[in-house]
Design a protein that fits this description.
- By secondary structure, this protein is an alpha/beta fold.
- The protein has two domains: 8-73 and 313-413, Aspartate Aminotransferase, domain 1; 76-311, Aspartate Aminotransferase, domain 2 (3-Layer(aba) Sandwich).
- The protein contains 13 helices and 13 strands.
- It has helices at 8-18, 76-88, 99-110, 123-138, 178-188, 215-225, 246-250, 276-279, 281-284, 297-311, 314-336, 360-374, 393-410, and strands spanning 43-47, 50-53, 58-61, 116-120, 142-146, 170-172, 192-197, 229-234, 256-259, 270-274, 340-343, 350-353, 377-378.
- The mean pLDDT is 97.
Length: 414
């Protein structure tokens, strides 16, 4: 039986933070999104594929900061170029530094739909710019969306504080449900500026879904039929599934796309990319600006990250290790007899529990993730994980063994 972690300092910091910050911590990092009382609330440091909390507990980090850590924490080669930029050139100026052009040229080389690029800081900003570009270019208002696209008014799932008119022209459809998308377009297609979707579905609390044969091509044809723009939200898939994103992997090319997370191994950057014809709406038709978007540190980090991804064939390594890990865990789940599912392989590993009318799945989920965190494997109950380059085969074998032990503890609930 694995012992409960000592979390005294984490809990004290949380109590202090409650007096300082609404909810102590923002959004998905709040304790109720894990298992309250079992997970740490504050980390102290990370290195490679591991993190240490403020109480000194070390974990194999398979959440990877919700995706940005593609290589590992505190990668010296990346941090060094950032430090040199700070010491030798600076990074926050009235005019843009030339590294912008170099990074844009690299993205054009790698990403199929990228003919021009606009650099911002967060995924929500990049997807929102893509929507604004589509509306500005087409002169239309309505949008079809599938998946999570950020916290802005047009797409956020929690509608508190948002007037209805901010999202009344946005229509949702289910992933892999081409018929539903066709029906909505049949009603509103001539007024639809864009269809935006995540090319791999990764909604919180649900299995990660890959596209069924013909789904992405069907959405592409549908957008073209109605002269609407197709937008891929590649914030998670970009620089992880493929250097050119899921669009390169599945060979279905959108008109615009948003990339971020893995692009700079943790430094804050995202980008809206697309075909020149559409992106040029930003010249006069559409206005965007920000004080901090041109800051060069994350751009320098992104260039070095991409260099390492190419040089070390990082994504091939992650694919191989992630596939091996997934195969092992699937066998473990099958042998356990626990009603749960492994999905997201090889890039986004996730163990979800099959829903039942008696809500046993909730008890199993809480027990499983309680046992897993006690065994120092950092995964999240309501969000898929990630595999990074610094996760060795030995690390992943250990994680699989800890998953096996945790599932064995769950048998006591059956």
């Amino acid at each position: 039986m694995a012992k409960k972690l000592k979390l005294e300092k984490s809990n004290q910091l949380y109590e202090d933070a409650l007096k300082l910050i609404p909810g102590a911590i923002l959004g998905i990092r709040r304790p109720y999104n894990f298992v309250e009382g079992e997970y740490p609330i504050f980390f102290e440091k990370g290195k490679g594929g591991k993190v240490i909390d403020v109480d000194g507990n070390e974990f194999l980090d398979m959440l990877c900061a919700y995706g940005p850590i593609i290589i590992g924490h505190r990668e010296e080669e990346i941090d060094d170029v950032v430090i040199q930029q700070i010491k030798n050139k600076g990074f926050c100026m009235s005019l843009t530094q030339q590294v912008q052009n170099k990074l844009a040229k690299k993205l054009i080389e790698l990403i199929p739909c990228c003919e021009k690029a606009v650099f911002v800081k967060t995924g929500s900003e990049a997807t929102t710019i893509a929507i604004r570009v589509a509306r500005g270019y087409t002169g239309r208002i309505k949008v079809l969306r599938c998946g999570y696209h950020g916290w802005h008014s047009w797409c956020v799932e929690q509608k508190g504080g948002i007037p209805k008119k901010s999202f009344e022209d946005v229509y949702e459809f289910e992933y892999n449900n081409l018929d539903q998308a066709e029906n909505i377009m049949g009603q509103y297609g001539n007024d639809v500026a864009a269809i935006i979707l995540t090319p791999i579905d990764h909604q919180g609390g649900h299995e990660v879904q890959m596209p069924k044969p013909g789904f992405l091509k069907g959405i592409r044809k549908l957008a073209t039929k109605y002269d609407s723009l197709l937008i891929y939200d590649e914030i998670r898939t970009g620089f992880r599934v493929n250097l050119g994103g899921a669009q390169k992997k599945f060979d279905v090319i959108p008109d615009l796309a948003a990339f971020g997370k893995s692009m700079a191994n943790g430094y804050p950057i995202s980008v809206c990319v697309g075909k020149k014809e559409y992106m040029d709406a930003l010249i006069e038709k559409v206005f965007i600006t920000s004080t901090f978007w041109p800051n060069s540190l994350a751009q320098v980090a992104a260039l070095k990250t991409i260099e390492i991804l190419e040089r070390e064939m990082v994504l091939d390594v992650i694919n191989e290790r992630g596939s091996r890990f997934a195969s092992k865990v699937k066998d473990i789940i099958k042998d356990s007899g626990i009603p749960c599912t492994f999905s997201g392989d090889p890039w986004m590993p996730y163990i979800t529990f099959q829903r039942d009318p008696n809500f046993l799945y909730k008890k199993l989920r809480e027990e499983f993730y309680t046992q897993l965190i006690r065994r120092r494997i950092f995964l999240q109950p309501y969000h898929h994980g990630y595999v990074c380059y610094r996760h060795t085969d030995e690390d992943l074998d250990h994680a699989a063994n800890m998953i096996k032990e945790s599932l064995n503890e769950c048998k006591k609930l059956l």
